Amino acid sequence: MITVRPVQEHEWEAAARAYSAAHPHEPVSGTDLRRRQDEQRGWGYTAATLVALDGPEVVGMGAYFQNPGAYHPRRFVLDLGVVPERQHQGAGGALWAAIEADLRGRGAESIRVLAREDHRTAPGFLTRRGFTGGKRYFTSALDVGAFDPGPFATLRPRLEARGVRIVSLTDLRAARTPDLPARLHALMSDVRTDVPRSEPATPLSFQVFDEAVLGDPGLLPDAYVVAAHGDDFIGQTVLFASEVSDALYTGLTGVTRAWRGQGVATVLKLAAIDVARAHGAPTIRTDNASDNAPMLAINDRLGFVRDPASVSYLRAF
To answer: How far apart are CA 293 and CA 72, in angstroms?
Structure first.
């Protein structure tokens, strides 16, 4: 008999294991799930995490929350997973039914979820429940040990000759750069506006940036890399570590409009690869919308290999 209820304090890791088993390419920890819910509620957003149980055993996890970078008070994001050996036994349906009822009670307008095209159950499960597929995304992986920087050896010196400096968050902090958090927030706010996404971008508040980016325990300060020209910050990339994977994960890579197409993003990624190698990380993972042609082209040239696409599914209420 499957029952669904809010996650209890001792069940966060079990909930994470259930989700990670269902989505092994997107592993999470209980700490990740708990932190996300706490952050969401701290920002005044609506978020909940539910578990499906068979007796005392957690066999599935479902969560809904809101996207700080594309915020709308009545639009939500969904995560849902059931351990593979317990799929097709009602746990996923029970989780979705509980989430749907909760969201209808909150006057929700829509909810989105990403599902890989090659997932054995997710596309069919979502389609049967009224979700419609839309924008496609690619997650790509770079084999750090096999990466050859040789073909890119002249790029950074050419940019340095034009006055472009590549510095890390560690460097900027050591130099006691004035107003550093505010300047980094302004840079991210600038470069993220043109990133293709399924929902329109909304401003990222300083609180969210400070807590979710600078305050992320997985942030690698040496791999938060900034391109500067004179007193201006003109580009950034950043890598995060995870407690459930030995891969490093790319946050936002972006360059201000005036400097795009001149090699800045590539040089930033090369600097991040150097840090990944120094940390002994075997893999860097990143994701991009399928219509983000410039960034996909950069990743392809660097040797990132794409996974099967993920599709953004929308369910309107």
So the answer is: 27
